[in-house]
């Protein structure tokens, strides 16, 4: 019996090493990784540049308190500011901590401006913002809230896509709107450009803050540095994590100067957030992402993945209900139970993928994939569909 909490429905499969887009189990079996540790391993496994940065940083200072200046943190924060809408940055260890910082920053902004009653945030059904009490309240998913007492006050929800419904929820208590430009956990749904622009306009009209959760869809995954760039808008606050450390625990909350200025000593903090080791790796990851042509190639691979999935849908319309997502955050809504299909891919095809809400197969390959990798993955999915069609139960249904 394991000494660990039973909070994960773990597979017995364990990996001992990885290289590029492949993981190798303890018996040496290679697996094509279109899971990426849930969009974390942005550069795949064993990226030489990041490994060398880790080794070099490990020979220096691993950790100090944030009561001291941390040069690597200052450097990474400035680079994120230089490449985004933001003027200020707070480093965390995870995405849910970045969301907590975003919520606190939004509420404290209005408190500091003499409006303490403006603390309510409009959020959306189908969203996922993390597992802390604040994050599950923001997500509003009843299954995540169950058993943890009353949900944290201050969040109201509506379905995404309806600007009139969003505006109807705005009151004198509202401080902001929180949304994922591409929902990951909820079903790999990309928000329409017009809806994102409409939310920005609503925030401007009513004096609200637009808060983006780009923990999963950001950091190059859609072919741009951040997914909101496709809409031509900017947020006031943004939560970042997952790909930012390419496997090392790291997150960040970014904000404009006007919004961040009230976050003075005593308002927030983190023991580990942005320590020297984490930020050395974060800088190495950013070196790779900002290299000339890197994001252009990610965009190209995202387009190629979409094309190959369209061909798959045409071959297997009885299995593929709908294609979703953006770039290398892709989803296939299936006609068959997705969790069973994930196991079929893993056990029979040695391919790692993940399920998402609304019976969606979620594909999250490393950003360094090639078209050959995409063709291999789509071939494995096709082989799984063909095996299902050949099973006696499928033949009986079609008889």
Overview of this protein structure:
The chain has 399 residues and is α/β, with parallel strands linked by helices. It folds into 2 domains: 15-46 and 293-398, Aspartate Aminotransferase, domain 1 (Alpha-Beta Complex); 49-289, 3-Layer(aba) Sandwich (Aspartate Aminotransferase, domain 2), CATH 3.40.640. The protein is 39% helix and 18% strand. It contains 14 helices and 17 strands. The chain has helices at residues 36-39, 48-58, 71-82, 95-112, 133-139, 142-145, 163-169, 193-206, 257-260, 276-289, 294-315, 338-349, 371-390, 392-398, and strands at 15-19, 22-25, 30-33, 88-92, 120-124, 155-158, 174-179, 182-183, 189-190, 209-213, 237-240, 251-255, 320-326, 329-334, 351-352, 354-356, 360-363. Helix 3 runs parallel beside helix 10 and helix 12 (338-349) crosses helix 13 (371-390). The longest helix is centred in the last third of the chain and has 22 residues, at 294-315. The N and C termini lie far apart (46 Å). The model has no long low-confidence stretch (mean pLDDT 96).
- Supply Rg: 21 Å
Total number of beta strands = 17
Q: Remind me, CATH topology of the largest domain?
A: Aspartate Aminotransferase, domain 2
Global geometry: globular
Strand line-up in the sheet with most strands: 4-12-11-10-7-5-6
Helix segment count? Answer: 14
As residue ranges, the low-confidence spans are: none
Which terms summarize this structure?
399 residues; Aspartate Aminotransferase, domain 2; 2 domains; 4-stranded mixed β-sheet; 17 strands
Would you kindly provide a brief summary of this structure?
The chain is built from 14 helices and 17 strands.
